[in-house]
Write a structure and sequence with these properties.
Elements: E1 11-14, E2 19-21, E3 28-30, H1 54-64, E4 113-115, E5 119-124, E6 127-132, E7 140-146, E8 150-157, E9 161-169, E10 172-179, E11 187-194, E12 197-204, E13 207-214, E14 227-230, E15 233-236, E16 242-244, E17 254-262, E18 271-277, E19 283-286, E20 290-297, E21 308-317, E22 320-330, E23 339-342, E24 345-355, E25 364-373, E26 379-386, E27 391-398, E28 401-407, E29 410-417, E30 425-433, E31 435-443, E32 446-457, E33 462-474, E34 482-489, E35 506-508, E36 513-522, E37 536-548, E38 553-560, H2 568-571, E39 594-598, E40 601-605, E41 609-614, E42 620-625
Parallel strand pairs: 16-18
Antiparallel strand pairs: 1-2, 1-3, 4-5, 5-6, 6-7, 8-9, 9-10, 10-11, 11-14, 12-13, 13-17, 14-15, 17-18, 19-20, 20-21, 21-22, 23-24, 24-25, 25-26, 27-28, 28-29, 29-30, 31-32, 32-33, 33-34, 35-36, 36-37, 37-38, 39-40, 40-41, 41-42
């Protein structure tokens, strides 16, 4: 009865005309319901929203029924497998969930953790753990997938195929594909070994593109052709299938190979495209239709002003890569975000050196440049000479606009108009203390910046890192970009994997949500003796932020950590390297390096644990050990 806590049985009924909850119906299935009332927080009225689960629907009835409405439901829990055929239940409809933070929408990138909204796949201890993650109250490890080598990264395709990229030794890599349609019974469907070095990979739909490099001549002066071993059968790339540039002269050469593969077809032959260059595969950038390999060229005899980057373009489609063209730009690239394809052009941001006066290259100046290449890899536009004596720290191209952050003593944010490919124009710039290592689009000409704050030292010619800096930028007026808000976290030595690996960033502008791992340092014994003094390593975990660029708001909602024994920080105190950060070792520490959400639950992942928190109030829901 209304207002009565007595519960009967709920049945889902489907007919040709409607699907609703009734007491009596012709076709019915007994639903599993969790014990006791579970109430969700509902958004404000005025628009339509989507339910996240059957339990969510039942909660809605429980909290929204009218006084003259009568219905009942049971507290008994049964398997929800019977709902799969009707499109109901957990098995077919996972709740909304986050995905790996990637550069190009639709182009997945390899990472240490993947989820499909029901299961989490996480690399730990030379294996990939399969965790039944949703619902959180029944989260548990259900499988442990052992790889032939040491897993470096994984892909997940539509809850059906798991790709593990592993290092067997320093000269051999493996690609293992597993059927994970039933995560309790995982079956390996493909094993590919590459006699060379892994550089990167992408997954577009069901098609994997693996990029690696190998040496034609080894340390014993023995010649080799590129070789892949496909399910125990050798596939050697023959000379007439290897591209080369007759204009390249160097003392070291590399094979750069792209292997394309349909991960759902265990019988399909992989396709391999190889190019011989004087540089190994460097920065990899991939659009939906093209893959670019960019390699810095440092001549053995020459001046700094001779340093260039070669860019090789391959078209990609349905697991096949085909070499198209090569080009060259002065200088070097900071990372994959220095490349971006838009409107059949490739935009490239470089840091380069100009010879100012001395013909021998002793009087040089560091500058930043932007080049535009067409699809034949010919330069058609350029903007050179930005930020003399500074270097690029971060780049983001968004549509016809480019954003560059350079740094020497202050952080100039440059806004560049690339509407006309042949005539890039500097629209505006902003100078503020510190710099951003990573820029994330928030929509409406607004950006999130993650980086470091700095303190100028001495006579003003030097600086020290002094804490992490989070910034909101607004370039609505591109001639006058503004930093609308900022927050400084910690003191000198505070750092984050997010500064050097964008996969560590969980940012959902629609939810006003930002979650990043932070390794925090503070001065615990009073003010520092000098600006160069490191703070004490006191905490590691994730910061959960509320960000609202429209209101210029950055607020810390909470700090979440698995570490219960503070003495663990002393064990890693000496590991900190101020110049190169901690991204080389954090996957083997107990510190969180990834986060994701499924429904209303935030999951934080470290090498040792997966912890769960309620996204509404950040209360701790449980922890799963990945180390037994």
């Amino acid at each position: 009865m209304p207002g009565d806590n007595t519960r009967g049985t709920v049945k889902i009924v489907t007919t040709a005309f409607f699907a609703t909850i009734l007491i009596v119906a012709s076709l019915s299935i007994v639903l599993p319901i969790q014990q006791g009332p579970i109430h969700f927080e509902y958004p404000p009225p005025g628009k339509l929203y989507q339910f996240k689960s059957i339990q969510h629907i039942l909660d809605y009835f429980d909290t929204h029924y009218a006084e003259d409405y009568i219905w009942y439901y049971s507290g008994e829990i049964e398997s929800s497998a019977s709902l799969a055929g009707l499109g109901y239940g957990v098995a077919n409809q996972p709740p909304p969930h986050s995905e790996t933070n990637v550069q190009v929408e639709g182009v997945d990138e390899p990472d240490l953790v993947k989820t499909d909204g029901l299961y989490i796949y996480s690399i730990s201890n030379d294996a990939v753990f399969v965790v039944q993650a949703y619902p959180s109250e029944s989260a548990q490890i259900i499988n442990e997938i052992k790889s032939i080598g040491t897993p470096q990264a994984i892909f997940l395709y539509e809850s059906s195929r798991l790709v593990i990229l592993s290092r067997v030794n320093w000269g051999n890599q493996t690609i293992e594909i597993f059927d994970v349609s039933n995560p309790n019974n995982v079956v390996r469907t493909r094993l590919i070994t590459y006699n060379g070095y892994y550089r990167s990979a992408r997954l577009i739909g069901q098609y994997l593109y693996f990029v690696g490099y190998s040496y034609p001549i080894d340390e014993n002066d023995t010649f080799h052709l590129p070789e892949f071993i496909i399910d125990y059968e050798s596939m050697i790339i023959l000379p007439w299938n290897i591209y080369y540039d007759p204009g390249i002269y160097d003392r070291i050469f590399y094979y750069n190979s792209i292997l394309g593969l349909d991960v759902t077809d265990s019988d399909a032959n992989p396709n391999v495209e190889t190019i011989l260059t004087g540089q190994r595969a460097g920065v990899i950038y991939t659009s939906l239709t093209n893959l670019y390999i960019a390699s810095a060229h440092y001549p053995w005899f020459g001046w700094w002003t001779d340093r260039k980057t070669a860019i090789h373009r391959f078209t990609i489609a349905e697991g096949r890569a085909e070499y198209v063209a090569s080009g060259e730009v002065p200088g070097y690239l900071i990372n994959q975000f220095a490349l971006d394809e838009f409107d059949n052009h490739l935009r490239v941001a470089t840091t380069a050196w100009l010879n100012m006066s001395n013909p021998y290259g002793w009087d040089i100046q560091q500058v930043s440049n932007v080049y535009v290449l067409n699809m034949t890899m010919s330069r058609v536009g350029h903007l050179e000479g930005l930020a003399p004596d500074e270097m690029i720290y971060s780049v983001r191209f968004i549509g016809p606009t480019g954003y560059l952050v350079t740094f020497e003593l202050t952080d100039p944010l440059f806004v560049i108009d690339l509407t006309q490919a042949t005539n890039p124009q500097l629209l505006g710039e902003l100078h503020i203390p510190g710099y951003s290592n990573y820029l994330h689009p928030l929509g409406n000409n607004q950006l999130l910046g993650l980086g470091k704050n700095v303190t100028i030292a001495g006579s003003g010619s030097w600086w020290w890192y002094t804490g992490m800096k989070i910034s909101l930028f607004n370039a609505t007026d591109p001639s006058d970009p503004q930093e609308t808000a900022n927050m400084i976290i910690g003191v000198r030595g505070t750092t984050s994997p997010a500064l050097y690996d964008h996969h560590a960033v969980l940012c959902d502008p629609e939810m006003n949500l930002l979650v990043i791992p932070i390794y925090l340092r503070e001065y615990t014994s009073g003010p520092p003796d000098s600006t160069s003094q490191l703070g004490d390593f006191i905490w590691a975990g994730v910061y959960v932020f509320y960000i609202n660029p429209d209101n210029a708001t950055i607020t810390v909602r909470g700090q979440l950590s698995d570490i219960t024994n503070p003495s663990v920080y002393n064990l890693y105190e000496s590991w900190y390297l101020d110049w190169i950060g901690v991204w080389n070792w954090y996957p083997t520490t107990p510190f969180v390096y990834r986060s994701l959400y499924i429904g209303d639950v935030l999951y934080t992942i470290s090498f040792f644990t997966i912890s769960m928190y309620d996204l509404n109030d950040l209360s701790h829901l449980g922890t799963i050990s990945l180390q037994g």
